[in-house]
3-hydroxyisobutyrate dehydrogenase
Amino acid sequence: MRVAWIGLGAMGAPMAARVAQAGFDVRAYNRTPKPVDLGPGKVVSRLADAVDGADVICLMVSDATAVRSVLEDGGVAERLARGTVIVNFSTIGVAETQAFAMSMADHGVEWIDAPVSGSVQPAREGKLVVMAGGSEAAFRRVEPVLRAVAKSVHHLGPVGSGSAMKLLVNAYLATVITGVSECLAVADKIGLGRGRLLEVLSETSTWSPVLAAKRPLWENDEFPASFALKHMAKDLRLVQDLSGAWMATMPLASAAYQQMLAACAHGLAEDDMAAVFRQLAQTVGSR
């Protein structure tokens, strides 16, 4: 099976490498040329060289604007044979997902939304969680590709189901990170110290892998990005769109969104999402 891979950023490159290592014929393209080692996979300089003759097109780009740029401005839709399947690993909105799927259907192309949970290291290890939406037939065709990057793959229903699940997962993640950051800031202010709070939390049933991963960032007050704060803010905006469409108020996710936006406005957009701690430390007056 020939796979065209579009998007070789921090997540896209290791995912494409995993697919190539699983034995698929991968031809990858990045809009900004960059040297990437995909093992047996091949990086090409033209979008057409990646997509021509491909059975599956995988997208791992930043947002819906980037998806649209590839599909429309890049002229991908007109180049694909009927029956080709597009797998969008990117996190975009549900309405956007459904609109793209309808547009591609006019060309005889099927759509699977398959956003992932996990950051760069799980991507390298092939241990992401895939949340997929689309027809059963299209899902079965691309399932081997999905499993090449994942420890688990969930087919959740029709197009848009994967995008909706990913947004809810990230809404949960954002509320956890924001809530812990707020408590750490208060611990500093009242003299207990965030290090001591993290030590105690790590011995309780509230501890989790994501807190373990963020612990050194909070302890050292340094936030190299594995999931940039600006990307979480984007996802929380999409959560607002989803909840609004269903008239389902999400006050905790909304509060986390406001804190993430404030953190972006104060120069933390490129830092890891755990850097919302710095914004909250300013708010509670611990620095």
Notes: The domain at 164-284 is CATH 1.10.1040.10 (N-(1-d-carboxylethyl)-l-norvaline Dehydrogenase; domain 2).
